[in-house]
Amino acid sequence: MDIVIGFNVVIWDFNKKDFTTINVIPYFIDKYDEAKNKPHSFPEFMKFVEDEALYQFWSRCEYEMLIADLMETDINNAKKVDVYNQIKLNLDVVTSILIQAIHERNDSNNNICKDK
Predict the structure, then answer these.
(1) Whole-model pTM?
(2) CA–CA distance, 96 with 41 (Å, rounded to integer)
(3) Which band of pLDDT confidence, cut at 50, 70 and 90, is reported for residue 113?
């Protein structure tokens, strides 16, 4: 399935020793497909996205990086940022994109999130 819309987050690729982006929407679509109790309202979708993001992306070293001021010399002053932080800051946007992607995929399904 081709995802036309997405939400990219920044991660540090250890192998390339460079920043890269990943689209998290396919992950959420897979988890939505696997869910026994699928969300139907916007608040339910937001909780679904937050719960799945917390489980998959929070405090896992492959999704963490340190951010500091360019001139900072003390690494202890750097802040840890992970994919979960990036999703949490944009939870409403990620939720809207997920709902839109599911709508586009299941164009004939009218049971998906009618209210916002």
Answers:
(1) 0.84
(2) 11
(3) low
